[in-house]
Amino acid sequence: MIEEQQNNPLHGLKLETMITELVDFYGWKILFAALKLGCFNTNPTIEASVIFLKKTEWAREKVENFYLYRFKRMPKAVGEQFDLKPRERGFASGIAPRKPMELTLASIAEMQAKASAEYEAGNRRPNSGYSSGKSAGKKPTGGRGTGSGYGSSNSSAQRRSEPRNDSRNDSKMTERSGPGPSTDDNDPWGTKRS
Asked: What domains can be seen in the chain, in order of their start residue?
């Protein structure tokens, strides 16, 4: 496993060196478009980005994933490797980094649109009664109360509107578990009782 980790392009790589390589090749605009991290957009500097990425682990892992799979174009992690952090992942000996992926603002927009379309397609559940279109959020129709053999909706509505003659409910309405509200304007919270 240690030999595999040594074959990881991130092994022994300083954060500052990684960001410098990415900025020199892609530039700040491409990095922001691809990663959506504010440190690459608003007054971007390598020093400020290093400080931000040292403090926020999720952002650092996002940049490290980008470095591994877009810049160095290493094979995607599978199985147990996927659960590991990017710096802990190992690659078999003999696997060498390839040329960096050429990215433009247009190609990034296309990839993000494709990814969101695939995400939406994966979230649709056939025959569930819910849809992700304009009617999203509406409950499915059918079921009880629509003449499906369980009784009509009128009879269930009548049952709900009829008052219950239950002695338990009557006793709860008349009993109070504490002092009544204050009627004194000078003591609205009712703290001064005589």
From this structure: 2-112 (1.10.720.30)
